[in-house]
Structures are given as C-alpha cells and as structure tokens.
Write a structure and sequence with these properties.
globular; 2 domains; 343 residues; Spore Coat Polysaccharide Biosynthesis Protein SpsA, Chain A; two-stranded antiparallel sheet; single chain; 36% helix; alpha/beta
C-alpha cells in the first residue's frame, strides 16, 4: 500500500494565485495525499478560496490562525499532518504532477529520510533551472547539512524536498523570521540518516515583485541576521561549531555580499542616505555571528492567543523556534539563601 503523504501550504493574501497551486497538488498522481492549507490571517479572500477547495475535495484541510508569519504557519500545518512523508509548497508556486510519486519512489527505494529535487525559477512565462547537479544519488544527512551551508553546492530551500515526517517530531522546526530556510534546512538535513538527490526539476518557484524577496527593505536585512543567529546556535548546541565553522563563515561572507548588492542597487524602501550606515551595522553583526554564542539557546515557544482551528478536527499547535536567554541558576550565599543559611 502506498504511504500517505502530507503537503503543507502556508497562505497569506495570495487569492489570485492559490488555485494554481492547489490544482497542481490535486493533480498529483500519488495517492493517498492530504493537503493542509494554513490561512495565516489573510484579508484578501484567500480564506474563501480555501473553503471552496475544502468543500469540494475531502483531501484538503484548512487551518486558520492569526497572522504569525510563514514559519509558524508551516509549524501549525505539520502539527496535524498524518503522512509518513511531508513536503512544503508556497501558495504562489506549483509542482509537476509526478513530484510526489517520483520522490516517494526514490525514498522507498533508497531508504532516505529526505529526497531533494531540482527546481525552476520562474518570472512570468520565463523559467530557468536552478544549477543543481548532485554527483552522487545518496549521501549522509550530516554531509548534506554541511553542504547546504554553501547554497551553490546544495540548495537550502525548504520546498524542493520530501521529508520523512519523523524528522519533525521533537520541536517546531521553523522560526518566525523571513529567510527561515537558512535557519531550518541544515537542521533538518542533519537529523536525516541519508539524503537522496535527483537533478530532475519538479518545483516551480515563481518570483513576484510583492513577495518576500521582491519587496526588499530593512526588515529583510535583519531577518537574514536573525536566521543566521538561529543557525549559529544550532551548530554550537549540536557540537558542530568547530567542525563546520569554515563553511559557516563562508556562508556569512556570501550572504554579506548578496545583501550588500541588494541594499545598494535593488529598488527598495530603504532611503539612500541610510544604506551605507545599514551595511556597516550588517558588517558588525556578521562579525559577532562568526563567534560562538553566549548566554542564549534555541527554545520552542508557543504562540498564544492565536485562535488556531482546523477543519480536520485535529488541534493544531501554533509554535515557533526562538533564541532566548538561558535562565541562570540562583547562587546561594549570604543574603540570597532562601533558608537563611550561610555557606
């Protein structure tokens, strides 16, 4: 019997593009399939689109929550997923009909916990393949995670991959920052025993001027830094800091060059006079992020008052992953011993 596969689609104000995404999922040749669409506080009619698909297709389930961001939306969807495998699709993108069947076939044949595919970058009617040419079909999970620190070697995107759902069992994987892939993908790959790879492109990543990458501003810069801080804590907490430090610093340098080009030359909301001071702050912070963290650690955090509901009857959890200060134990001594003892 074929394994159940769950797909999580976070949605925020993409009513016009959502049908294309959902139609591509319902056209998958693989069954059984459950489609979990998470309405992250949309105000443009996306909720009506989701309700219509839920009413016509029993495999479509809708989760509704206040606007928390794409990371918590994905976490809420994963929390009610039942599939042996899970994957993610952004609501403005779409996938080929054999995406699930082919990747599940690879996973079943190799025993891999993650399968990575090629992808297309699309701008209107134009498309170009992402330059992904894996040399070996199967590698160790920790090696894949290390390679993902260099995006030219292995794409760190979260949505071109099929995951065994057991990789998500312990904590909410996604933080509530933009560019959450930087913070999440290496952690998920490191949990995998093996990772399979295929050059064939199934995923269509559609670039828009009003997307996260299209509307570039100060928030984008500090979101990159926040995602890198989470990754820094993961490397340090998992004992990989020394071993992977060279690749991690190389990632910092690549992102500094990329963000600098975007700040200086890409049309954005950043005032011209503020761009060089912003880049100086970026450089200082990246220097700090190259050093080991102190006094903070990664912790799961519940997002309260989010009124999360699901049509499936299962109770979703709206959570995120955050860097928080570690409570220091109270030192006992004269003046602070609750029992009044000395020594």
């Amino acid at each position: 019997m074929a394994p159940l596969v769950s797909v999580v689609v976070p949605v925020w104000n993409v009513a016009q593009l959502l049908p294309r995404c959902l139609d591509s999922l319902l056209a998958q040749t693989h069954r059984p399939l459950e489609v979990i669409v998470v309405d992250d506080g949309s105000t443009d009619g996306s909720g009506d689109v989701m309700a219509g698909y839920h009413g016509e297709h029993p495999e479509v389930h809708v989760v509704t929550q206040r606007h928390r961001g794409i990371g918590p939306a994905r976490n809420a969807g994963v929390s009610i997923a039942h599939g042996e495998y899970v994957f993610f699709v952004d609501a403005d993108d779409w996938v080929e009909p054999d995406f699930v069947s082919d990747l599940v076939g690879i996973a079943e044949a190799t025993g891999a916990d993650v399968v990575i595919s090629g992808l297309w970058f699309c701008v209107g009617p134009l498309r170009a393949p992402f330059p992904y040419w894996p040399r070996t079909p199967v590698i160790r999970g920790d090696e894949a995670a290390r390679r993902s620190l260099a995006p030219s070697r292995l794409p760190a995107f979260v949505w071109d991959k099929l995951y065994r759902r057991s990789l998500f069992a312990d904590e909410p994987p996604f933080p509530s920052v933009l560019y959450e892939d930087l913070a999440t993908t290496p952690r998920l790959l490191a949990r995998a025993g093996t990772v399979a790879q295929t050059r064939r492109a199934y995923y269509h990543y559609c670039l828009r001027s009003d997307s996260v990458t299209g509307e570039f501003g100060v928030k984008n810069v500090f979101s990159v830094l926040a995602a890198l801080d989470i990754l820094r804590h993961e490397l340090h907490g998992s004992g990989r800091w020394e071993q992977w430090h060279r690749e991690y610093v190389g990632m910092l340098r690549q992102l500094q060059a990329l963000v600098s080009v975007q700040v200086l030359f890409q049309p954005s909301s950043i005032p011209v006079a503020a761009r060089l001071p912003l880049l100086r702050r970026l450089s200082r912070r990246l220097g700090e992020l190259a050093e080991p963290p102190d006094g903070y650690e990664l912790q799961p955090m519940a997002l309260r008052y989010s009124d999360v509901t699901a049509t499936s009857g299962r109770e979703p959890l709206s959570r995120t992953l955050a860097v928080r200060r570690v409570p220091q134990p109270t030192r006992r001594g004269p003046g602070n011993d609750p029992a009044g003892n000395i020594g």
